What we know:
By secondary structure, this protein is α/β, with parallel strands linked by helices. It has one domain (13-179, 203-237, 291-303): Rossmann fold, CATH 3.40.50. The chain has ten helices and eight strands. The chain has helices at 13-22, 26-29, 33-42, 68-81, 103-116, 154-164, 180-193, 211-221, 241-252, 261-278, and strands spanning 58-62, 95-100, 122-126, 139-145, 165-179, 226-238, 280-283, 289-303. Strands 1, 2, 3, 4, 5, 6, 7 and 8 form an eight-stranded mixed sheet that branches. Strand 1, helix 4 and strand 2 form a beta-alpha-beta unit. It comes from Beauveria brongniartii RCEF 3172. Pfam families: Ubie_methyltran (PF01209). Keywords: Methyltransferase, Transferase. Belongs to the methyltransferase superfamily. LaeA methyltransferase family. This is UbiE/COQ5 methyltransferase.
Amino acid sequence: MSAEPQETKPASPAGAQLFDNIASSYEQSTGSSTRAIARQILELQVFQNLFDVPHDAVVLDNACGTGIVAEEIISRCRRQQSPSGGGGGGGAVPEIRAADPVDKMVAACAAKFSSLGVTDRCSAAVMPGERLTFADGTFSHSVTNMGLMFYTDAAVGARELHRTLRPGGVAVVTTWAQLGQVDDILYPAQRRVRPGAELIKMPIEPRWFDPAQVEACLRNDGGFADVKIELRNAYYAAPTADALGDQLLELFGMFSKTWTEEEKASFGQAVRELTPNVAVPCTQVDGSSGYGVPVTAIVAICTK
């Protein structure tokens, strides 16, 4: 089952640079929104057998980033199998193979597996989603959480998901339908500072925000005959509205490097003014109170 690391083949220069830059602070840069969506994925009925024992499941955490999906599976297995959770499985986890094209992300994921004491069951490898080295029909479950839209060739990546999945297996693929931090803060702030200028381009093609086009890719390119689409809501969050503004400025800073210092200062002021008006009280993924900007994910549930 193990996979040999391969040379990174990034989705695009902008996308690759983005993830390389934020690898060490990935969770904060996403406002924990990808983790919130991962938790909602694992609530789906098709994943419930992952948390029972004995385990015969083999899971692919594809475009794994820092291993958030894998970590959530491990945490839930241990919680559900504990005496207080009504189980007696001793915290056994399924086999998990994590893959990502960015070296720093994979290193963080591998370190997480080591700290969790699961290296006998879980491994991580540098591997682009278009060139998975796993055998046909390897996985019972496959998750690509916010990754497909950054592929160099999403059609090939979708076919690889289908190829490596067992008959009867399930693959869940997510993309964003709406990003409140972009639509309601970044773009309005930019319009104030640079009226008439072309809006900052996200390293995501517009088609990935369209549920119908996501489904078409998985059906027509991937070969999945059974695809169900759901929309799930979450928050791009931080402990306070001020912290949220700081977080967004750090993230947006990579898009304004060529601006004048005056424009950057005005942009920062605009973001700080807009954020408290857009952010709403919410519960963060750690259970604490915070402030967040609503985001919506497209969740595609594909059965082979």
